[in-house]
Prior knowledge:
Elements: H1 2-17, H2 25-28, H3 32-35, E1 41-47, H4 67-74, E2 77-79, E3 82-83, H5 89-98, E4 114-115, H6 131-137, E5 141-147, E6 165-169, H7 183-188, E7 195-196, E8 199-200, H8 208-222, E9 228-233, H9 245-250, H10 257-282, E10 289-295, H11 301-304, H12 320-323, E11 327-330, E12 339-341, E13 345-346, H13 350-357, H14 374-377, E14 389-392, E15 397-400, E16 405-409, E17 417-421, H15 438-452, E18 460-461
Parallel strand pairs: 1-9, 1-10, 2-12, 3-13, 5-6, 5-9
Antiparallel strand pairs: 2-11, 4-18, 6-7, 7-8, 10-11, 14-15, 15-16, 16-17
Helix pairs in contact: 4-10, 8-10
Amino acid sequence: MIPTLKKGLMAAACAVAMAGASLSTAQAAEPASARLTERPNVLLIVADDLGYADVGFQKQSRDVVTPNLDRLAAKGTIMTAGYVSASVCGPTRAGLMTGQYQQRFGYHDNVAPFVREEGIEQGLPVELTTMADRMKDVGYRTGMVGKWHDGDAEHFWPHNRGFEEFFGFNNGAANYFVGPINQQEQQKKPWSAMYRNDQPVSNFDDYLTDRFGDEAVSYIERHKNEPFFLYVAFNAVHGPLQARPEDLERFKHITDDKRRTVLAMNYNLDQNVGKIVSKLEKLELMDDTLIVFISDNGGKLNDNRSFNTPLRGEKGTYWDGGIRVPFTFTWEGVIPAGKTLNEPVIALDLLPTFLNAVGAEVRKEWDLDGVNLLPYVKGQVAQLDNRYFYWDNQMSWAIRDDEWKLIKENKFNKQQKTELFRISQDISESNNVADQYPEVVAKMTSAYMSWNAENDTPKWGWRKTEFPVANGYRGRH
């Protein structure tokens, strides 16, 4: 295992040399072989608009074919109640990258036509520290491949947010058959082009998911001898619905055109995840790499025909179909294989988990909103402490704990609808028991109000009525 040994020695050097690293002197003095699991690579793979049901390991969709994701899940642990912090792309990624609820800094929704007041830039605030910054500070190489979607202006882009290497795009969606870049269009909408760091990639004729898989494999090959953090953010299976002909042929028996196309796209996504894992296996790095796979939100049935069975709702809603996603941990020899865990967890937990996995300090003043999941996924503790999870945009909000979930829609309407579900027993959110448990509604409403009082006002939105001031629109205070 020459690559692993070299990387272990490199990790030791980084641990001692990097001022930001927080490994103890005792740890630094251990043999390299004892330190391998304390300085693992971290690989975060994110799918886009992938439905809860549309991976084989969930055993919900009969027509889906995802052998590589299923194998990855079988090598690790499946989190059946894994959530993200928003039901749409941009805010989820903002929360994921900071480890904080994005409402803390006013990032309640995707970038939108109206801002609260003049001078507001729509993007992940540059003063915030990202996951890449944190990993870089403790001696890790940092790379990103895929979709960013956290700000159009260049100072928001990944190569300015802690990622040493970036290949991908900064928009919310992209064509899968990119073709040669139109230079005039690139100048008009620079965030829509493919980039390597800050340089547009003009000669491009790959199927996009394949290209992202190849770029991830190349990154791993280049950095196999040093600890790395690689964030692979596929835009599959987000629209536009575009699949390779050979992948469509595999699903020719599916009569629904949209469903056939998304299954083909999903299959190609799976093949590229397999490509990445195969590279780790070939380099004998699987026992030295923590791998997490999630989706950024639920599938949207009418848009991309991605299924969320047995969940209610879809992308854009706060029913579980919008925010509960496929979620797996794999770390061979460290995280037990073939396990399923049912405690609710959230993508905000990933930053403290990653930092703990690499032996780095998580400082109280960072005020992270997640918890370290390693003791739970390793089987060292049977359950997590009960806690609240929160969701909020400009129209609706939701809160859940181990047992209950409360949703309030049209929060600025006096006739707002209140729904309470015993989510631990009612995964489909089919039985509203708000009238039967008014004390639970009151308790959870109070908890939400206390949490929201500490948040920033939404900085942008989609409706003029929410920002009723000319020339840029002010939000509700």
